[in-house]
Design brief:
- Helix content is 28%, strand content 24%.
- The chain is of the alpha/beta class.
- The protein folds into two domains: 167 residues, Alpha-Beta Barrel (TIM Barrel), CATH 3.20.20.10; 105 residues, Beta Barrel (Lyase, Ornithine Decarboxylase, Chain A, domain 1), CATH 2.40.37.
- Strands 1, 10, 11, 12, 13, 14, 15, 16 and 17 form a nine-stranded mixed beta sheet that branches.
- The radius of gyration is 23 Å and the shape is elongated.
- 43% of the residues are buried.
């Protein structure tokens, strides 16, 4: 009874199963054709059924951003995990050490970009039964984490090699810390970053402590530029090229629709909501807002409308003017009435799924099939033995 209610309550996030399967298949084939592996960044959806399908299509593991997301991935049965982030708190590091000691077959790796981070990790792992495998994080000026130069990367690589409890297994970058556009200066910045990551990888190879070092890049906007600057075959024996793209899995109607270089991806997500009011001519207010719709990478777009009985209103049109917490104000409205439903196209999947503990799976014709769930819970309240 609960899921029957969820499938008809509004507003609702909706996932087209046909588009989902298409996108997983398309990206898997794109990677195979270029000789690279895929460990998708599952923070995009944090939804077990989607991740299972990505792995079934050939993904070699999963990427996450936080230690709590590691816990979720392990609970779903996934043991090959890359944390595309620094872990510098002792409690988080202790959790990782515990998980690694529980199962020798697990791989949980993370990034480092500072001597302080290396020191903290060593304090937790030195003398333990397992080492923490880490990758040098290469960043961009004004961007997020990561060393900013080749020299910094090499100094850090040498430090990791000399630090008990840690093992250097590769280098990682993230080319997505730029505006999502194909403007010439943006692509130039992406290329510059890709070259730097490659240079750090090649020069740091002498410090690697594995026979299969990892060269990892992430993002769904510029994977084509990444593959233009990969280490040449044989430069570092045993190299594994691992992409961490995540947003491809659902694509979107906004930012990734505009910049993705992967042909054949289809927008798979939308939000359906009810027209609550038509208080002025050419204006409608719909019952979905900032709590329901991503808006960090552009406002939602009007896709279609239906009557309360589900009959499509072919002449309906509107544009989203602005969002409140639980309302979207539409202007330029034609053909919308109170009790109609409106489907919105979304921009930026990573800001969509985290708003929804449940969402509706549909077939390609929009018929409801099932209700799937997400897991964005945080487990920060954990009892620590001996604590008062």
């Amino acid at each position: 009874m609960k899921e029957q209610y969820l499938a008809t309550a509004y507003p609702q996030l909706r996932l087209d199963s046909h588009a989902l399967e298409n996108n997983i298949r398309v990206m898997a084939q794109w990677c195979r054709e270029r000789g690279v592996e895929l460990a998708p960044h599952v923070k995009t959806t944090m939804s077990a059924p989607i991740i299972e399908r990505q792995l079934a299509a050939g993904a070699v593991g999963v990427t996450v951003a936080t230690v709590d997301q590691v816990a979720s991935a392990l609970a779903w049965g996934h043991d090959h995990i890359l944390v595309a982030n620094e872990i510098v708190d002792r409690f988080g590091l202790a959790r990782v050490r515990t998980w690694l000691e529980e199962d020798a077959g697990r791989e949980i790796r993370c990034l480092v970009d500072s001597a302080a981070g290396v020191k903290t990790a060593a304090e937790v792992f030195d003398g333990g039964a397992v080492d923490l495998e880490v990758l040098i994080d290469v960043g961009t000026p004004g961007g997020r984490t990561g060393v900013r130069s080749l020299d910094e990367g090499l100094v850090l690589a040498e430090l990791v090699r000399a630090t008990p409890g840690l093992r250097l297994v590769g280098v990682a970058g993230y080319e997505g810390v730029v505006p999502n556009s194909r403007a010439e200066d943006t692509v130039t910045a992406v290329d510059r970053h890709c070259r730097l990551v490659r240079d750090v990888y090649l020069e740091a190879a002498k410090f690697f402590e594995t026979a299969t070092p990892i060269y990892s890049m992430g993002g769904s906007a510029f994977p084509d530029r990444v593959v233009e600057f990969l280490p040449a075959g044989g430069q570092v024996p045993g190299t594994r090229i691992i992409l961490r793209s995540g947003c491809y899995v659902t694509h979107d109607h906004g930012t990734y629709a505009a910049v993705s270089p992967v042909p054949g991806l289809i927008p798979a997500i939308s939000v359906r909501a009810v027209v609550l009011s038509t208080p002025e001519e050419g204006m409608a207010v719909v019952g979905a807002g900032k709590r329901d719709l991503p808006y960090d990478a552009g406002l939602p777009t009007f896709l279609s409308a239906r009557t309360a009985d589900g009959i499509e209103k072919k002449g309906a049109a509107a544009g989203v003017r602005n969002l409140y917490d639980h309302h979207a104000v539409l202007t330029g409205v034609t053909g919308l009435d109170v009790t109609d439903t409106v489907d919105f196209g979304l921009s930026h999947p990573c800001s969509a799924f985290d708003r929804w503990p449940e969402y509706v799976l549909t077939d390609r014709d929009g018929h409801d099939l099932d209700v799937w769930h997400t897991d964005f819970r945080r487990s920060s309240l954990v009892t620590v033995p001996g604590a008062d």
